[in-house]
Amino acid sequence: MKKFTGLLFGMLGVVMTGHAQTLRIANNNPAPPTGVNVYTGTTALQDAITASAPGDIIYVVPSTASYGDIIIDTARTNLTIFGIGIRPQRDLSVLSKIGLVTIEASGVRISGIGEMGTLRLASSNNPTPSNILIENNRLLDGIRAYSISGSTIGNLIVRNNIFVSSIFFVLYDYTPNAIITNNVFIGGAGIIGGLTCTNVSLSYNIFANTGDADIFDRVEGCLFEHNIFYGVRVDITNVDNPSFGSGNTWNYNLAYGNSVATYNVFEVALKGNTGVGNLESTGPGNLDPLFVNFPFTTVWDQSYDFSLQAGSPAIGAGQSGQTIGPSGGDPAFDFDGNLLPFVQSITLPAVIPVGNDLPVNIKAKGN
User: Fold this and answer.
1) Closest to 26 in 3D by CA, of 63, 50, 59
2) pTM for this one?
3) HSE-up of 341 (CA within 13 Å, CB side)?
4) How far apart are CA 22 and CA 49, in angstroms?
5) Distance CA 219, CA 258 (A)
6) What residue spans define the domains of the chain?
7) pLDDT tens sequence across 282-320
8) CA 193 to CA 249: how far, in whole Å?
9) In this predicted model, what pLDDT tens digit does every residue of 138-191 receive, in sequence order?
10) Which of 296, 300, 255, 295 is nearest to 278 (CA)?
11) Are 41 and 66 in contact (CB under 8 A)?
12) For residue 140, which of 86, 176, 60 has the smallest C-alpha distance?
């Protein structure tokens, strides 16, 4: 399959060259095919980024080795980086992998990276970055936003990602009006808000842990809607720092997984929190969301499936009959997370008579 992956990226470049962007390929595999705008070796991805002009697209070929740390500096505006997905077809063992990612430019889109370290959003530069889209990735160390002199990062969208991390976010007041939707968070805490945090929206997500885990730390001024809290504590008085936890809105969320009933209560009447339509379990088994295959966990496994079974209390329990959790987003969570055409099979005849054409049947998936 790996041979055809490189070929597929090449074909996509041929098909799409009518667009204004330059299409570049980063491939750090041993003995990769070479060509125009193909970058190889241990620094392949950073080399492709450095060579890019505003609006370019980079394809990151799946590899067993990480492409290492990268910096997208202020000159690389409107840059798009595509990998092969979170788990394309769910049985592909080779993914696109990156280490620490620092974004200083505006208009950056990163999609389909199967393993990413920390994602660092730096607003200390001029101009301040904005219009950042992070989708279809698996992040191993969360997202951090940094700011000097009070500048902010506008229009941040984080969707259809899997976070497996000790800390999900360090956003503070630097990402006003960020949209965080249709993600799965496994493990740690969210240092999301601050004293002047402005309406960070978290919707249609799952927050999961093994039980009795406090995932809130300095969560201020946020909107939580249609999320599933699974094996975690949602009582807002249990935040890491008792000075925080105020001014949040909790609408149509489901809390399940603690035998202590008060740990599954959103406490919307405290600290200026408000909310309606929340489902709060009263003990083991009550309001079980009935995932197809998703245990209480702090680690990720490719076999997990957090689709909802028939009879789940999350189905139709949201505003206007919407479903709570990633299955209810528009669109619903995409388990493969690959936006590129993906070759599933190539069928060739065993024998080709001399002088006959070669019939080839190629089955592919595209989004």
Assistant:
1) 59
2) 0.86
3) 16
4) 11
5) 21
6) 2-365
7) 877 789 999 999 999 989 998 999 999 999 999 999 999
8) 13
9) 999 999 988 776 788 889 999 999 999 888 888 888 888 899 999 999 988 777
10) 255
11) no
12) 86
